[in-house]
Amino acid sequence: MKLTFLGTGAAEGIPSPFCDCATCDHARVNGGRNVRKRQSVLVNDDLLIDLGPDLFASCAQLGLSLCGVKTLLVTHSHMDHFDPNNLLLRTKPFRLATELPEMAMIAGPSVWTRWDGHGGSDKQADIRRTTIVPGRSREVGAYTIRAIEACHHLRVGDAMNYVIGDGKSMLLYASDSGLYEGHVWKELEGTRFDGVVMEGTIWKHPSGREHLNEGDFRLMLNRLRGIGAIDDRTVVIATHFSHQGVGPHEEIAESVKCAGAICAYDGFVVSIGE
Questions:
Q1: What does pTM read for this prediction?
Q2: How far apart are CA 52 and CA 48, in angstroms?
Q3: Are 162 and 75 in contact (CB under 8 A)?
């Protein structure tokens, strides 16, 4: 399974245009891996996770086309993970020369409420609506997708993480979420992951309920090891960083390495399970 990170930042991205903290100023001056667009990940060139506001700019910068995407997973309805304008721009008037395959869009109720409220048309955007809630599974093409409850977006309550299998490897996509509740750990028992993508939004901050800091990141990994879900062969990747929770890329990359993971950056490509 190939993963391409189109964005690795939290809601404001790095640098935030309305912030002059040391991290944002450093990113403006030094650029490169210090600059982080809002998070989105492409899997195997045909499955996209999240549809945030930086998607078009990221694909242009990285020289990527999404014409082959047949499945879209949305974790939750926060604006940095689901921008309905991106679906509107998928409609035929904005791609007259291009025919696209129908795209299965898998998302929770609050995402569909936002899409409908924005005036979206499933038919015009060539999407096949599939509603999912935590505890449910779907098979789409070569993928088996299982939704698990994220500890995030608690006022709405339908934020999800995903267990994704492509017949060759298994991925746990764990962003956005704080520490999992007990029943989620029971659901994960018996599954071994080739890769784990996990957030580190508030890395240097005190522990929080809806995001992970470094200590909670380590706790999650220890718990995953404890139930046999990961081992020394598992590729663990940290992502979704807030400018208020991390420093320069080199600094956070070293800290993430000490925690037993790889620090993602925009454009990072990695293969798991091979």
A1: 0.97
A2: 11
A3: yes
